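hey so i finally got around to running the thing on that chain from the lab meeting. sorry it took forever, my laptop kept dying and i had to restart like 3 times. anyway pasting the input first so we r on the same page abt which one it is
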Amino acid sequence: MAATDEFYSAAGNDRLSSRQIDELIGIARGVAADGGLNQSEVEFLQKWLAASADLSDQPIIRVLYDRINAVLSDGIADEDECRDLLTTLNAFSSRDFELGELLKATTLPLCDPAPTLMFDGRSYCFTGTFNFGQRKACEAAVGERGGRCGSLTQKTNVLVIGLYATESWKHSSFGNKILKAAEMRSQGIPIAIVSEQHWAGHL
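ok and heres what got predicted. didnt touch it at all, straight out
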């Protein structure tokens, strides 16, 4: 193929991908418009993404597709899974998604220096969207090492923030949990706030 042909082919593919991403953004806005997701909407998204195989080289699309496949791996999109997926879709459809880029410590109240993490007998809470897998998988990894997981309380030892987030995390559905943990810490409650990357390094 001549260089000019390669250029026009690449340019055509870029336009195609851009148009389909725009279409997906429209779909994401549509299904998230009522502030909730249900089983049929998640299944519809899965089918649309599966039919758009040529988007597989787009990191954002690939992670979104993998996340939806994980949600539906047991055939059921439960309430927690739908809530997490809704946060992801809202961020994606507003083009505010910094997918694959860990937010810098200056924008998140992470412990500095990050502490050494122990699991046995320790209580963990997870918030955000994780590269490791669904929140259930993260919680299972803690449970296998003798720890426990649950909601954020004064007895929580570690809050883990997922790798994928938006710059406007304070206004996201999981931002309240991060702010609450930071406030607890400022009041002298010994809670560690760490990134998924730091947590995963201790597994």
